[in-house]
Amino acid sequence: xxxxxxxxxxxxxxxxxxxxxxDEHGYASTTISMVLERxxxxxxxxxxxxxxxxxxxxxxxxxxxxxxxxxxxxxKLQEIVDMSFVYGRRLMSNPLLQGSVRLTVDQATPPGVDxxxxxxxxxxxxxxxxxxxxxxxxxxxxxxxxxxxxxLVGSFAGIQLMSRALTGREDLGHRLSVLWAHVLxxxxxxxxLGRLDTAPDRGARILAMLEEDxxxxxxxxx
Amino acid sequence: xxxxxxxxxxxxxxxxxxxxxxDEHGYASTTISMVLERxxxxxxxxxxxxxxxxxxxxxxxxxxxxxxxxxxxxxKLQEIVDMSFVYGRRLMSNPLLQGSVRLTVDQATPPGVDxxxxxxxxxxxxxxxxxxxxxxxxxxxxxxxxxxxxxLVGSFAGIQLMSRALTGREDLGHRLSVLWAHVLxxxxxxxxLGRLDTAPDRGARILAMLEEDxxxxxxxxx
Lengths: 222, 222
Hints:
Shape of chain A: globular
CATH architecture of the largest domain in chain A: Orthogonal Bundle
Oligomer: homodimer
CATH class of the largest domain in chain A: Mainly Alpha
Number of strands of chain A: 0
Helix content of chain A: over 70%
DNA-binding region (chains A, B): 31-50
Domain HTH tetR-type (chains A, B): 8-68
Strand content of chain A: under 5%
Number of helices of chain A: 11
Largest interface: A-B, 41 and 41 residues
Distance between the termini of chain A: 19 Å
Structural class of chain A: mainly alpha
Keywords (chains A, B): DNA-binding, Transcription, Transcription regulation
Pfam families (chains A, B): TetR_C_45, TetR_N
GO molecular function, one term (chains A, B): transcription cis-regulatory region binding
């Protein structure tokens, strides 16, 4: 393995361990030694990548938005819907993402850590998509993209929190489906409404498809 | 002051101090001594009312839903809307409520403290109101009261969180107004829609009215 590739893997292993520990213990109670033990890396390797607990928390926070990655869809509203379901699905099982979300919603992070960053990053990212949807004629003329997007981002944050508190996030897909059923009629043009897929298992189906594609790609390799 | 009244005041002073300390430090980092210092009561008085940090946290959590109290309204959907704005407004300035909300959204509370209680209590409380609205013919036939209510409760939790992270809750009224503009068309019968007051300052206006009423009552006392 090349030196650079090894460094990338080590960094990732540390981030994943840190996410899991932050999720279980919160920012204040997490110590570097807990992360070291979980990641099974040397102290030197950890400090090489992350000089402090703050920088580790910031890196975990910065990993959040990429978890919303989904295949592009010709209908940009569907792509936004897909993002919510895929992200929700990943949140059910990925400890790095769970830790990142806990750091976002907890008020415990010190001033040096921008725990509100993911709110802003999510909003900026989805506003771009919703403006594309607007250009394609998918939106009602009353929609103000930034307002709608900040509502969706805020609502998502609370819905996953409530789902976590009541069912360990088991019913998150269903709750997202209810969200979309309530807000889409105020966002999408009527002709589009009935054609958007907002079923609770949307996220699971997209992820299964992505995995199949990956297997096919691997088999095609020489 | 009668003995019982003094006990009630002491209990309240402890709860308010605890709320403020929990809001600032979170559950894990809060100590009984911090609360003692803030409340300016004796250790004996505190332990008389709350035998442990867990019981103190539980009592702070149990205080949450009463902060949504609003004057009854003939239109039950308006009463639910009012509740959200008044509660949001109180959340901007009341340390006990702020602490209670932090305990609800933080994952840090130990198994002995039911931090998901407020989610359930809110849902049960608002479902009752929404079922009254249903009986009065205020709702579209497609509405499933519990689903709609859990969406509203979850969304509120996240919206206040995002508002707190980005503006110290300064824009919470505006964000609630955006929420209602998006979901009411999927909830209310068309004839009611245009008549509901969902302006960002709705909470401030109701609270001002309540204060005026209280002043009038006090002046009328012999």
